Write the structure tokens for this entry.
Amino acid sequence: PVSLPASDRAGDSTVHLDEPSIPDETAANELTPQPDVQAPSASPSAWAASLNIEGVQVTTTGNTTTLTFLEPVFSRHTTLSPQAGTVLRQAAAALAQAERSMLIQVRGHTDDTPMRGGGPYRDNYALGLARATRVVQFLRYDVGLTNAVLSATSQGDEAPPFPNDTPAGRLKNRTVSLTITAE
């Protein structure tokens, strides 16, 4: 089985991809379309309209929509911040309403601080990949997003979404971005 770091809490350091957690019934019910709600079309402009979520910047270019989180997604390494869980659930609920399946590439980011030896990650690229994988697992298993093909990739400290010239900018780069394309 493939296992990757899932959090920084002792006793909860790996997630086995072939042993998904059982999705929370409440979260799964929140993703079920209501009969009186019309699902938006899968076009990027419709996604942009349905993804009006506080704390998320949505940009659409051609057939691709990118979600950039304006606050840190991770409190440390690969531990999701409480606010990130809420925002990711809102994004997943909007994406679950799409009429067609989609490809979602989760891109992990880090700040430009070099990794210290002896930790669980060799470098910022490895940390970025672990972050992206953690969000893929969250979207698939914890939230139950099933109408999407999810992939994880890393930017590491290359091309961060925010400048690394201040401590606040470095903190905001503890994040992922989601690139969404309709199939």
Summary: The longest strand covers residues 148-156. Residues 124-142 form the longest helix (19 residues).
